[in-house]
């Protein structure tokens, strides 16, 4: 079988979806494409279904919290919004990888789901919802996947309290034992 | 008469107290629950395997049902999501039931001092013996189990009613 020649992702975007690409970023010869949240599904579909690209495997979806007070300087630095979400794709045909990144505003924490393209996105998006609180529009079953169902808050946010408890030593054992809830039968 | 004595090997008569007999039976076959949470469970398994051979104390048989087990070895860190499961397993165990908290994580949270881990399984179920270590070596676990056996040997029948299901 003749395998079509590999295409460049950026030029394909300029041909097929002009205006969708907000920018690119290259780190260690690995390309990252920046798009708007609404454009994520069609950008990923273009990468998956175009001959010469065939990024057919969604290896991961990850989310980052660029919480401004934790960084120490204003306005999320060079990040336009508080949350960043990246989609990691692998082309099994051409053996190369690509990332599609988008920024989500704190005020409107909604992304379109990509479970319509990859079934595997189901639990990945549930994990991001659980840990970061980003909702995915159109997801078939958006529940918590790691934390208990009745958990409050989203633990991987930078402003989430760590839940640290005072370590018990011999000098404060009485003090702690007064408050610590021990099970009684 | 002669038939019975010769079958028993002419051992004569042994007298003991009911307490001792019951406690001997309990310590001699204290079946643990088949329950491992993290890396401590690996050490628990190796304690039961041929090298350390927990069957010397009649404890080689892990029961997969809490209704058939006498001892729950909490081997590993207890997440807040796992906590209700442990409580339910403990409630399903028949009295007398014993709890051994194995390792630092189960005893006090260990290095996992954060929101997701219960800071000591004694917040959920009452613990009889704590075993320190990260993870404890099989010798330490055996020492903890023998400590529990010693405790069980000290129990008295007359306290059963008073202490309830303990």
What name is given to the CATH topology of chain A? Answer: Beta Polymerase, domain 2
CATH superfamily of chain A: NADH:ubiquinone oxidoreductase Nqo5 subunit
Could you tell me the strand content of chain B as a percent range?
5-15%
Average pLDDT over all residues of chain A: 87
Oligomer kind: heterodimer
Q: Strand portion of chain A, in percent?
A: 15-25%
The major sheet of chain B is characterized as: 3 strands, parallel
Termini separation of chain B: 42 Å
Taken from the alpha-carbon principal axes, the silhouette of chain A is elongated
User: Reading side by side through the largest sheet of chain A, how are the strands ordered?
Assistant: 1-2-5-4-3
Counted by DSSP, the helix tally of chain B is 7
Largest sheet of chain A: 5 strands, mixed
Order of helical and strand elements of chain B:
HHHEHEHEHH
CATH architectural category of chain A: 2-Layer Sandwich
